[in-house]
Amino acid sequence: MRAEIIFTGTELLLGQVLNTHAQCLGQELAALGVEIVRHTTVGDDWEGLTSALREALRRADLIITTGGLGPTSDDLTLAAVADVLGLPLVRNETVLSWIKEYFARRGQAVPENLTRQAYFPEGAIVLPNAAGTAPGCIVEKEGKIIVSLPGPPRELTPMFEDHVVPFLSKRLARGGVLNFRVVRVTGIAEYAVQDLLRDLEGKEKVQLGYIAKPGEVHVRIAAVGRDAAEAQQLVARMLKEVRARLGDYIFAYDEESIEEVAGKLLAAKGYTIAVAESCTAGMVAARLTDVPGSSAYFMGGIVAYDNKVKEKILGVQTEILRDKGAVSPETAAAMAEGVRRLLCTDTGIGITGIAGPTGGTPEKPVGLVYIAVAVPGQTVVKKYNFPGRRFAVRQGAANAALKMLRDLLENDGGSSP
Amino acid sequence: MRAEIIFTGTELLLGQVLNTHAQCLGQELAALGVEIVRHTTVGDDWEGLTSALREALRRADLIITTGGLGPTSDDLTLAAVADVLGLPLVRNETVLSWIKEYFARRGQAVPENLTRQAYFPEGAIVLPNAAGTAPGCIVEKEGKIIVSLPGPPRELTPMFEDHVVPFLSKRLARGGVLNFRVVRVTGIAEYAVQDLLRDLEGKEKVQLGYIAKPGEVHVRIAAVGRDAAEAQQLVARMLKEVRARLGDYIFAYDEESIEEVAGKLLAAKGYTIAVAESCTAGMVAARLTDVPGSSAYFMGGIVAYDNKVKEKILGVQTEILRDKGAVSPETAAAMAEGVRRLLCTDTGIGITGIAGPTGGTPEKPVGLVYIAVAVPGQTVVKKYNFPGRRFAVRQGAANAALKMLRDLLENDGGSSP
């Protein structure tokens, strides 16, 4: 089933209101297995609304409209729906009695323009509004379905979930169901991710998509199956292949918060942690403490931006800084072990690198970062080359450090002494 | 001028990403006096994109596209623009040299698919990308203008403001001219801001708008004048009144980066800085070092989450922690002075507070934060009550600390010894 969503409201066009419906309806429809082909936003005018409806009717089987169901003169949606489907508007006596009751309870007469809300395209299924006075409706004609929902999120959401989802679920039992997963990688540029996956694109009805964000790239794996099980299986099979190709670049899946996962592992093992950061300068500490309750395991950190801080506070040896340089695996390891010693914790992280824009050399270019994680019994150091600019390099390094911590804790057999 | 915006990205259709461009572009175009008649969102597919462009060309004079400028095979925007306008794609040697330089600085060869980003519809004005590798462009043909911008907000916003607004302003010079300023406040809730300004709303053709963000509220002052001078004067007059009402809650104006302003003041005075953070746990250090070149004045920091770190590393006296508590003006001052002594800097910041969700008491509720700033000759401590949840409290505290630093440096007559 191909669907389009039409959002109405001049306030959306002018940016006075953020359109959050686009996200929540998009997610819910995708989850139902509806293929969404377009979103359109038009103002509260007859011409804009009816032309958008007519065009959508040519392309899609299902059209969802939001807004324009109220009692004022700029609420045109149901009249427009009736018009484009060639149906008359007829008065619904049940709805009229709801409106009368609503005002009777308040000891008021029904305002004249409120009775407008009792008129629907002929044959419409009326959807009650749990949080307002304007009902929505579903109209079907010649294989096309138009669902009209109110604009306010607190009215739209329950109406959609309570009435539209059950209706569509029945209709979609025959159609395909969509499943998707998101794989999040760091330390590699978007084009290089695609190079690794290009030959998998379009295989077995599975779609691959790429989204670049500062310090990470999202790979979206999506498939439509005959049912939920088949869709899930198609995605799972491709996910396995993608994991094999991207391996160590992967730091998280879907909406997973890596700092929360790492925090839970620390808490479960009874480990405490401290961090020593140079180029990320507090970003890893801030991420770890973004998790409520992190004070149980996070003791503190040293932002060792200047070399004197690395030397004097963290105890990185002068010889290491002089012979290997501040950006070296040796310095990263000495930082991780130094902060662990200084703050008397079980685990430590050390990060040193070149965020740019200046400071790069042919041997040590912008983007080069060494990350060390010290857990009881071992210290692991890794070298990364993060693509992008200053902020992306720093974000990438923070993602990679949290991933290294999680991996080490997952594979760590020991527990706190 | 009638305009439409076309957003591209399957992730937008599926609701994986919230479309914030719809709001910010809507506001900026409305501010310029452009009449926005439609927003359309399509996926990363040729058919959807070219049909949306063709339809929009029939209705509008100006079309703005977002997304699809990257190097991967699902980035189709410029090819689609060229196709619907009947123009060839031609290689831009300047852009090609930018791409080559970017990779040369990293000691890498240009990946093959990256050269795609040097092809533009014939005659296009290329728009440099201050925060990424994909340039945007403006193409004009037979009275129609198509502006293509990148998808990531960090790239789109500066490109739009620096290149598209001046371009459109020239074209639109005949209509009314809009001017606006944004006043950014912290430490106060959105409803309380509105309470302070309510009687000013709608006065003298000036519009006031409010946007709540984590840790800050934006007050937007906008006015349309017959010419730029009149619009500016209307806004300036209202700004003066708003400043008088909001006073010390104001921490920044417009897009101003407070960490950059504070950094410039430090550099000008030859001062160095160190920070000691408890509840913000590295956020202020990360903000200060977001500025390229900050290593000239930023030495480092201590994330003193656990009290032992405050005591052992920063030298906060046991008696202060015992008698006044970790969240107290005395502890904040001792942290600022302690980190300044420890890292031998001219200035220091100390932050301690209760970010929540737990840890609050009737005397010391969630949101209570003490911030101390030590400059040569004086240490100033302030008490704040930040509204909102954990992340908002932390962001608010970071904003307030940077504001206190700037204010003190601006009013500080001395210079480094």
From TrEMBL, chains A, B:
The MoaB/Mog domain, residue ranges: 4-171
Gene3D superfamilies: 3.30.70.2860, CinA-like, MoaB/Mog-like domain
InterPro entries listed in its UniProt record: CinA, CinA-like_C, CinA_C, CinA_KH, Competence-induced_CinA, MoaB/Mog-like_dom_sf, MoaB/Mog_dom
SUPFAM superfamilies: CinA-like, Molybdenum cofactor biosynthesis proteins
HAMAP family, alphabetized: CinA_B
Record family assignment: Belongs to the CinA family.
Protein name per UniProt: Putative competence-damage inducible protein
Organism: Thermodesulfitimonas autotrophica
The gene coding this protein: cinA
